[in-house]
Sequence to fold (798 residues):
Amino acid sequence: MSAAIAGHPTEITQIAKKPKSQRSSDSMRKGIEILILSVPALVMFLGFVVLPVIMAAYYGFFKWKGYGKPSVNGTFVGLDNYKIILTDPNFQQALGHTLLIAVLSLVIQGPLAILFALLLNQKFKGRGIIRTLIFVPYVVSEVIVGTGWGLMLQSTGAVNAVLAKVGITGVDWIADPKAAIWTLMFIISWKYIGFAVILMIAGMQSIPEELYEAARVDGASFWQMQWRITLPLLGSTVRIWAFLSLIGSLQLFDLVYIIWGQYVASTAGTSTMATYMVREGRLAGNYGYGNAVAVVIFVISLVIALTYQHFVLNRDLEGAITGPEKKRNRKHKVSNKRAHARSAAANVSASQAKSSEASLATAPIHEGEVA
Amino acid sequence: MRLKQVLAAGLSIVTLFSLAACGNSNSASSDGKTEITLWHNSTTGDGKAYWQSAADAFMEDHPNVSIKIEPIQNEDMDGKLQTALQDPNSAPDIFMSRGGKKLRDMVEAGQLMDISDKVSDTVKTQMKSALSAESVDGKLYAVPQSVLPGGMWYSQDLFTQAGVSQTPTNWDEFKTAAVQIKDAGITPIALGGKDAWPAAHWWYWFALRECPTKVFDAATTKGDFSDGCWIKAGEDVEELLKLDVFNEGFLTTPAQQGAGSSAGLIANHMASMELMGGWDPGVIRDLTPDGKDLADLGFFPFPAVENGKGDATAVMGGVDALAVGQWAPEEAVEFLNFVSEKDWQEKYAKAFSTIPASKEAQDAVTSPALKGALEAYNNASYVTIWLDTVFGQNVGNALNEGVVNMMAGKGTPQDVVKTIEDAAAKG
Fold:
């Protein structure tokens, strides 16, 4: 949005045909302004994001123990580290676990969150309390969640004690390789569903009430309304949530590290790419190798994120991308057509649907980009 | 105009970096005193107080020296040290060392001071047996503070309650005793498998009993694990596992944190024994309900293994020492000589409930458990430090994890040896 607005003044000055000298001093002043305002952010970005990535790539070419300089105290091994990473069954397992967690998170949390949001979007007594309760786990720190569940789910912990009272012998939820990944999925779902629900509720509340009224007049049932109005208009929220959830899954580290400790994660089958990096890099003291793992994780995450953005978030991102005015217009036309088609299905006037989707589409994306 | 842009950009960068560069160097303070920083891992209680009082006493004798003590949480120590050592200005002058491969890595990076000729005769004679653990290629780099021989720590009351009158000396007796304790309704062995190394200690000890000293040395110096005794060690662990004598859920039990940890189980009489290093009495003391020494704590050496080719008296243990940075002032070594004297070593033994490195100060050890450990240590014909310390973090961690995998039923004794070889490729 802001980018689009920023684009306008230049066009206006060009159209107004000011004297040449004034025009150039204007654009010069603007250039300096942009430069000064962006330098601090740029320095931070280069210093704390780009530079570490470059350094990690450099360190990744060495066998290096982290003492002294890699060029002096390490040995240059070229791409050897990468060869070992990609053929290490432990890494392949960790990658498998990470992808499984990413997919399961979407499959488990998505439908549940929408159902919860549908429920919490109705008016009933105590709605505020339940909304708060469902959001509380998301606010609690990972360390506390991990320690708490870790203690309760031990084979001699509270959960098994309760199960024993009803006559069920519980398994070792954490150490049993067959159960561990599902235990982790349960804890992840419990912890992060609150965030999904809040996003969905926000998305639902920006759907205009008139659409439902019109549908009701036409005799649509409750579920028909959710299926034909809520779900389609919730699309962009779902896509953004899925993107955030994917990124969260790819980075998953703290919960696993706290519950399974430094070593047992790969034994129990819950290791992730991040825990593999810490174990093989920092804990094993192989700083060169660890940096190579970091680069691999970076590339995998980047490819997944860009692919998702390109194919799924594509239509939500328009308006956030600055580009030639013509191109933007063309895209708008396409999306208008889509909006028309969908609003026809919803059996309401086209313009209403277009405006509501446009506002839905742009608002959360900017948040996502900032995050 | 271009110049202005460049100037503006330059100015913002300079501002940022001048803010970041506000660190200070630590070698000489403004009042002309020589400043020494010391990093140790006792963040609470008597241990922390011991270092402060030692520093205060030294500063009284040397008014021109100021010692800054910084206790660092044990688990954070390695990471913080590694970062700090990159820059002599922020690095401590004296810091904890456990010897082994890591000490060698620091020496090879030129970060440690060779103190072979700088330590006092007291250090050279009274700590003689512990010096080799802190030496690299015949040169000394750290001054030992305590020796921590490993073995079985057990509750005398629970043994009596189960009708085990004598501590087992060989593998058969050990198995019989463990089953007898189990049948009496008591958990025989506590194990903190979550931290991996306590589980791996079982494998180390069996290896020590199974492998001849020569094979052991070949593995630690050349990384040669071809001898069949290494696989035999794994099979011994499996045999013990089949008896089902470990505490329930040992894979997710930590070693030292809280009453549910393996040390906590011993401290609260929830399990009868555990295999640990010489720090165990101190850790157990902090986890008893009243915070006092466990009255009925006893010690017996790791039992001999039938047909084992290893030395039956051999002892594995740790050495806690203080290393000196290559950049440290001479007074740093003087301070280490100061705390190596008998009276300070005796105070150290009391503060940490452990065995001091100085032979003369070892009379200060009074608890029966520690006395037993000390006796086993002094009678040993062969002493080595923990295998994971010897091999360094890389191979050591892989070895620890390999043993845990095996104990979780996800690997064979052969896999443990293979893990070691795989890890060697990464470092």
Q: What stands out?
A: The two ends of chain B are 53 Å apart (CA to CA). Chain B touches chain A through 46 residues (CB under 8 Å). Chain B has two domains: 34-148+319-373, 151-316+384-426.
